[in-house]
Amino acid sequence: MGKIPSASTGGRRKSIECSKQYNREDLQHEVDRLVTAAFSRKTHLAYSTGLTAFTYFCDRCGILEKWPPSLDIVLKFIASLSLRGLAPSTVRSYVSSIGYI
């Protein structure tokens, strides 16, 4: 069998130092940095608010295993937001925050 060539997006190839060890703290810091850079401050705030609302809902309803949430839990969360009178755009944002995780 032939060797499968590695994929490339063109440009200069950078070699990856496989022998270099990264500790968890360094990796988590880099993940946090990349995630923060991926979204605007406003989006981060909206997602944080949505996740807080979802966590509060789960705690109030005695849902111990939140992640990954089942479709039933998400639908009940949406229904609770509707009963609270939240705008459809806010509900969409809150549901998006769950999908973001």
Question: Can you describe what's shown?
Answer:
With 101 residues, the chain is an all-alpha fold. It has a domain at 40-100. The chain is built from 4 helices and no strands. The chain has helices at 24-38, 41-60, 71-83, 88-100. Helix 2 (41-60) crosses helix 4. The longest helix has 20 residues, at 41-60. The protein starts with 23 loop residues before the first helix and ends with a helix. The model has no long low-confidence stretch (mean pLDDT 84). Keywords: DNA-binding. GO terms for molecular function: DNA binding. This is Core-binding (CB) domain-containing protein. InterPro entries: Integrase_recombinase_N (IPR010998).
Task: Please describe the structure with a list of short key phrases separated by commas or semicolons.
mainly alpha, 101 residues, 0% strand
Gross morphology is: globular
Q: Please tell me the overall pLDDT.
A: 84
The proportion of residues in beta strands is: under 5%
Question: Percent range for helical residues?
Answer: 55-70%
- The quaternary structure here is single chain
Distance between the termini: 40 Å
β-strand number = 0
By DSSP (H or I, 4+ residues per run), the number of helices equals 4
The low-pLDDT segments are: none
* Largest sheet, strands/sense/barrel: none
SSE pattern: HHHH
Structural class assignment? mainly alpha
How big is the Rg? 20 Å
Explain briefly what this protein structure is:
The chain is built from four helices and no strands. The chain is an all-alpha fold and 101 residues long.
